[in-house]
Write a structure and sequence with these properties.
CATH class of one domain: Alpha Beta
Strand content: 5-15%
Number of strands: 7
Largest sheet: 5 strands, mixed
CATH topology of one domain: Glutaredoxin
GO molecular function: 2 iron, 2 sulfur cluster binding; active transmembrane transporter activity; inorganic cation transmembrane transporter activity; metal ion binding; monoatomic cation transmembrane transporter activity; NADH dehydrogenase activity
Bound molecules: FE2/S2 (inorganic) cluster
Strand order of the largest sheet: 2-1-3-4-5
Keywords: 2Fe-2S, Iron, Iron-sulfur, Metal-binding, NAD, Translocase
Shape: flat
Family: Belongs to the complex I 24 kDa subunit family.
GO biological process, one term: inorganic cation transmembrane transport
Structural class: alpha/beta
Protein name: NADH-quinone oxidoreductase subunit NuoE
């Protein structure tokens, strides 16, 4: 988490333009009476857009006033979310993802490019064109390493392609958004490796899964059921567990006496016996005669 402080130099005042004021009133009207604070993020965002990409302190106060919120509450929102810039940014504001997948794919080398061409984080170049900030995952991990510049993603970057990209932006030349290696979206490098059977896409196998069931011989449920299942466990303990289960399942609710099998691990001997008789409830005959 980076330290987020308001800029030392602030404008004297902030006011929405007529268009933005009208838009802001529309946002506030979306919420029921007493819930106007819900519009805080859209209003802060619009104020930031109007103010050249960063949020001055007077704008925070103005939004608090419009929403009837304590200034500190709006300040908390503005300082918590990195989507709000509290200091001036360059015309091309680079947000560089430094989270693990991007770091493993070379984000640190991209940081070196930023330091070389721009300087430290939050520093705006003298021409006002570039500034950068390291941020957490931007959700394009499969195209790592990547950066967001203003509203666009630039992916599959190398130090060379990133440096060229920044130079092009600075010079006002057209640039390509998305993957810089030409792959489509986040398709795998080197071509597809799965779901490559063309019949999956020509409709010829639609519904074929049903034949597995219709072709199955009827009346052979037992064989079908047991197909592929492991053999019943033949260990003595398993037999005991099965007998106990049978006993519980008696329709009259009375348990059969289960056979017990004890194994002496020291001698290796196995003893087979009968479980103790369940005592009958008062006034009821014993469940089984004789032992
Ligand atoms: S880790 Fe960089 S976009 Fe997700």
């Amino acid at each position: 988490m980076s330290v987020r402080r308001l800029a030392e130099v602030q404008p004297a005042d902030f006011a929405f333009t007529q268009d933005n004021l009208h838009w802001a009133e529309g946002q506030i009207a979306k919420y029921p009476e007493g819930r106007q604070a819900s519009a805080v993020i859209p209003l802060l965002w619009r104020a930031q857009e109007q103010h050249g990409g960063w949020l001055p302190e007077p704008a925070i106060r103005r939004v608090a006033e419009m929403l009837g919120m304590p200034v500190i509450r709006v300040m908390e929102v503005a300082t918590f979310y990195t989507m709000f810039n509290l200091k001036p940014v360059g015309e091309h504001f680079v947000q560089l993802c430094g989270t693990t997948p991007c770091a493993l794919r070379g984000a640190n080398a991209l940081k070196d490019v930023c330091k070389k061409l721009i300087g430290d984080q939050n520093h705006v170049t003298d021409d006002g064109k570039l500034s950068w900030l390291e941020v957490e995952c931007l959700g394009a991990c499969s195209n790592a390493p990547m950066v967001q510049i203003n509203f666009d993603y630039y992916e599959d970057l190398t130090p060379e392609s990133f440096e060229a990209l920044l130079e092009d932006l600075r010079a006002g030349r057209p640039v390509k958004t998305g993957s810089q290696t030409g792959r489509s979206c986040s398709a795998p490098f080197g071509g597809d490796t799965s779901l490559t059977d063309e019949s999956l896409y020509d409709g010829s196998v639609v519904g074929s899964w049903k034949s597995r069931f219709s072709d199955e011989p009827k009346g052979d449920a037992t064989a079908a059921d047991s197909a592929g299942r492991p053999e019943q466990n033949s260990r003595p303990e398993a037999k005991t567990a099965a007998s106990a289960k049978d006993a519980e399942a008696q329709p009259n609710g009375k348990a059969k006496r289960a056979t017990t099998v004890k194994s002496d691990t020291a001698s290796g001997a196995t003893t087979v016996g009968t479980a103790p008789k369940t005592p009958a409830a008062p006034g009821e005959p014993p469940s089984e005669k004789g032992a």
